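Q: I have 240 residues here and want to know how they pack in 3D. Can you give me a structure?
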Amino acid sequence: MSDSIGHFTVVVPAAGVGKRMLSACPKQYLSIENITILEHTVQRLLSHPAIAHVVIALGENDEYFSHTALSNNPNVTQVVGGKERVDSVLAGLKHVNAMKEPWVLVHDAARPCVRHCDLTQLITYCLENNHGGLLASPVRDTMKQADNKQRVASTLDRSQMWHALTPQMYKTVELTSAITSVLANGIDITDESSAMEALSYDSGLVKGSSDNIKITQPEDLFLAEFILNQQKNNLAVEAI
């Protein structure tokens, strides 16, 4: 990879409790082969040659992070996150110098399997098109629209439908402005792209690997472990 692609900061919101995992600790601190999910994720990000720094937004009363190897990593900054994901992302963005870092990425703490080649594709796309974008995967299954009784109301055209993944990458000033605006106006958003949509910013869909899963349910932990093991032999030689 050419050095001209730059060196970027990634904001990782990690203040959630992950109730659906039914675990005693937040899901980002569950372990895969004796390494926490959060460590897997951040190490994957920092091992990419274009990523120089990660800002992690933690829960105010987080009691786990200090026991991870990340707590002493000079390329990792800790900030206090908020009640919702969007609040944590904004807290992280406030620690990014927009003058020095005009672009920023945001990545889920519970997506440890993101591929280097996908990171490169996203960064390259955004720089070449001068607008933000996100990794996404085309919908493969038949999609149904439900009514208020959870019965099928219609079958949707999936040809233009995508699963939103992360990272999502945007200009630092624009993303900060968009998130600040939606919060001020009480607009509900589920990701950074939602905030950018609300302010009519362009947002490109960059096809990413379907194994970039988000660990949400207990069974996802085993799937992530399988994917990480499958990727081990390929990561060193993966085209970046």
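Q: Anything worth noting?
A: The CA atoms of residues 38 and 195 lie 25 Å apart. The radius of gyration is 18 Å.
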